[in-house]
Amino acid sequence: MKVATLVLGLLQTNCYLVWDEATKRAVVIDPAAEAHQITSRAKAEGIQIVRILATHAHFDHVLGAAELSQATGAPFSIHRDDEPILLAMQERAAAFLGLHVGSPPKVDGYLKEGDEVELGTQPLLRVIHTPGHSPGSISLFDGRERAFVGDVLFAGSIGRTDLPGGSYEALLRSIQEKLVPLGSDVVVYPGHGPSTTIAREQQYNPFLQPPYAVR
Q1: What digits encode the pLDDT tens for the residues 65-124?
Q2: Phi-psi sector, 114: left (phi>0), alpha (psi -120 to 50), beta
């Protein structure tokens, strides 16, 4: 598996191109904006985008989804619990940043806990439901060493929970019960900022230490 990172949009969202080296079939995680940059990178890598996934439906993670789906024919998927957030995308973008954005992208399918994303002969990514930042936030784990976590966990911090549908307690449980057990060596690819590891966050992230941590 190979990974390329593109930082897109006003909020500098991490968009990930993940592909199977044998088949050259790729999934886009969090098509934040500027779909032409995503397709240009895919062309440069010689890969075909066949799936578009969002770790959650906040507008800064999905603004490029409609254009990207139209350009590639790849279906777009989210967790069903985030659909109300997706449908309110225009209203929330206007309220949050004064942005006027297009209509929400069409959802072609829903992701749930345990789903597997296959791009070759073996599953490439497994869906883990990690609510808290939003009700339908998911993480995507390659089963070995990489987890794409959206805005659940950051280097030195965690996702905000003051937006509609957020829950501080649920977020901490998702981190401790779903992400930490993946293993200390797992590399965490967040929705914003640099990558980190589970071990590093267990040691240095204040939200994974008492008294913040949920036990």
Answers
A1: 999 999 999 999 999 999 999 998 888 888 877 777 878 899 999 999 999 999 887 778
A2: left
State the Cα–Cα distance between residues 130 and 174, nearest whole angstrom. Answer: 5
Residue 215 placed within a domain? no
The answer to whether residue 214 sits within a structural domain is no
71 lies in a domain?
Answer: yes
In contact, 154 and 195? CB cutoff 8 Å? no
Whole-prediction pTM: 0.94
Of 22, 7, 9, which is closest to residue 124 (Cα–Cα)?
22
CATH number for the domain harbouring residue 90: 3.60.15.10
The neighbouring-strand residues paired with 28 are: 17, 52
**Do residues 195 and 180 lie in contact, with contact meaning Cβ atoms separated by under 8 Å?**
no
- Angle of helix 35-45 relative to helix 65-72, nearest 10 degrees, comes to 40
The answer to the question of residue 196 being in a domain is yes
